[in-house]
Amino acid sequence: MATGSNGDIPPLSTVSTRARHTIQLKDFLTPYAVTSGMNPYHPKDNPKGYINMATAVNRLMEEELETRLRKADAMQYDRQFQHYYQLFGTFQFRMALADFLSRHLCPGRTLSTENIVVLNGVASCLDALGHAICDPGDVLLTPTPVYTRIFSDFCERALVDVQPIITTQEKNQENLSFTYQPRDIENRIQELKAEGKNVKGIILVHPQNPLGDFYSKSFLLDVLQVCARHKLHVIVDEIYALSIFRDEESFVSFLALEPISPEPEKIHFVWGMTKDFGLAGFRAGVIHSTNQEVVNCLKKLSTYQCTASIVHHACAALLNDKEWCDDFFLPTNRRKLRDSYEKARSFLEEMGIEVREAKSGFFVWINLQPFLNEVTKEEELALFEDFFKQRLFVVPGSILYCANPGWFRLIFCVHPQDLEAGLEKLRSVIEVRRK
Questions:
Q1: How far is CA 420 from CA 51, 55, 99, 310, 390, in A?
Q2: Partners of 272 in the β-ladder
Q3: Which fold is adopted by the domain 17-63+325-434?
Q4: Residue 8 has what pLDDT?
Q5: Can you give the residue ranges of every domain in the chain?
Q6: Would you state the pLDDT for residue 12?
Q7: Class at the top of the CATH hierarchy for domain 76-321
Q8: 273 and which of 121, 133, 137, 279 could share a cystine (Cβ 3.0–4.6 Å)?
Q9: Which residues form the Aminotransferase class I/classII large domain (predicted)?
């Protein structure tokens, strides 16, 4: 019989084995997010508060969004919102999504509303896909470093074993760090199969978090060939697909590749209103899949993971307003993202800090190894604590499964005054370390 650390027999648990598994999975960042969220910085009202440059939220378009959402067609109350509806997404919203995604990510292709399911956030979408595609213990691969909750979203309830494809800071012929080749996926599949693992698919975050890059069309086609050879599903999280502020024409969505994929029914596209529209509180995540069995399962799961119909109505109003959405909001957002990124990058590089070039997303990925006493995870976390003591919340790379200690992720699309104050706090900590 198992005993506790002190040798005593533990009391019988009041929850299931599955629940204990979920409880035991700790989230490193949550306590820091709670602390900083209860005491936020304001240049006049609370200059000693915390500056959050860790949570991936775009604060640059808040005023523009508020103005648009206050119009009657978006948030006007209707009696229909009191009643049941298609919990996997109102027809109005799915129609708006099909048209919006088509015109921005796969022009010339008509998406069917029957292949679209709406759940309460992209985390819920990933959780539901794990349930639909994998049995407990099955493996999904993902390149690292990566958004930390990729592991949690598939593991906490669906009990999927997410395994990394490890990349490093060693630079390739194009002078880029943290890269890999399709053959690395093949090698990792073979390694895991040799260990007796059942590899069911791969998860790609495209554009990437935390690197702020995206994959080329030729690379993606090669990945699809590898996955087809091994009969793998491809789950692609494109939550930052419209937050590209450089080389916009080069970005190719999986929605554009699906018709020419060797196995299109094994591609499952995920997007949401959270990042590109800064509407994290709306909890509107989207899955597109042509796999009818998967879609049928997701529709059933929507009973437990749905979003309020009034939210669907408001989101549809934004997406259908092409003059506001396509001609004003998206290009203005891209310009603001580019300007804020360049400001942060210039500041950091003037300090002598290595910045990995980004094209998309909300992230500055920086190398702070020169300011560690030793290049270890322990020293990285000690530097993280130094930042937090100065009321600056950033993300240490090890929490994002980075193989090389000393890299950090900063969110640059905070309010302009927060960006300036946050970078100054970072400078003050680095200058102490430099001395």
A1: 10, 17, 39, 37, 14
A2: 285
A3: Aspartate Aminotransferase, domain 1 (3.90.1150)
A4: 54
A5: 17-63+325-434, 76-321
A6: 64
A7: alpha beta
A8: 279
A9: 51-426
